[in-house]
Amino acid sequence: MSSETSTPYTPASTSTTVAGNETVSLADEIKKYDTAKLIEYLRGQGLGLSETAIKILEEEEITGRTFFKITKEELERHGMKLGPATALVDFAKDCKEKKLKAFSSYKSLKEVLKKYGIGSDGTDTIPLFSLQTHEIKDSNKHFEHCVENILFRMKHYGSLVLDSLESMRNEYVSTILHTALHIAGDDTGKEFSMRPEYEIIGDECCGRVDYAIKEAENLLCVTEDKVQRSILEGFAQNIKQLESSYETNKKKRKRVDDDDFDYLYGIVTSARDWHFLLYSPGEISQASEVPVTIEFNKKALNKESEEYQTLRNGVKKVLSVVVGLLKDRACAEDDSPSKKKARIEEYRSKKK
Question: How is the chain split among helix, strand and coil, in percent rounded to 5?
Answer without folding.
Answer: 45, 15, 35
